[in-house]
Specification:
191 residues; alpha/beta; Rossmann fold; five-stranded parallel β-sheet; 10 helices; 62% helix; globular
Length: 191
């Protein structure tokens, strides 16, 4: 069995739900939002600061302006180093599922199955409408914004293209396959 499963995903594709179900099915820990909390503890930065640095990185004029260019750069380096250490620490504890945070790039040389979950925009809007308190216009804007931020994060921190099929072992169209089938395919792939 592969030791680690990383799940990268388009926003509102069901990747977080898939990650939770895979972890439950395999009886292994899931690391998702814990990464932000552990990064806060390790760096002493606020949740807002960690999330802002991760999502807006150096490409954000406003983030750099608000933080000061040198402070923004230093915080980003501090966060990147902390996240690497935290993710490596999870892996050292044993088998696990890690959702997001470009973990596939952090664990490039690890014994891992790197999954990318995607779906078409209509299915993602429908997912967002059923899972979040948003209307259709807000859902579309959130999807576009979050995907854009994930691309920027991967490129800025790792010089890698988020969503590029060559960066993953398994690509799953959750809109076509459904959540349960995606879970089964991942579980089968790691055994």
């Amino acid at each position: 069995m592969k030791k680690v499963i990383t799940i990268s995903r388009q926003y509102a594709s069901g990747g977080r739900t898939i990650g939770k179900m895979v972890a439950q099915e395999l009886g292994i820990p899931l690391y998702d939002t814990e990464i932000i909390k552990d990064t806060m503890k390790k760096t002493g930065l606020s949740e807002e600061m960690v999330e802002a640095a991760e999502q807006r990185v150096t490409n954000s004029f406003l983030f750099n302006l608000a933080m000061g260019v040198d402070d923004a750069h230093n915080h980003m380096k501090q966060i990147e180093k902390a996240e690497h250490e935290i993710i490596q620490g999870y892996v050292e504890k044993g088998a696990c599922v890690i959702v997001g945070r470009s973990a596939n790039f952090v664990l490039e040389k690890a014994d891992s199955l790197n999954v990318f979950v995607f779906s078409n925009i209509k299915q993602r809007i429908a997912y967002a409408l059923s899972h979040y308190d948003v209307d259709e216009k807000q859902a579309k804007l959130m999807i576009e914004k979050t995907d854009r931020e994930r691309k920027i994060h991967a490129m800025s921190f790792y010089s890698k293209e988020w969503g590029n099929k060559s960066n993953y072992d398994l690509l799953l169209n959750s809109g076509e396959l459904g959540i349960e089938k995606c879970v089964k395919l991942i579980v089968d792939a790691v055994k």
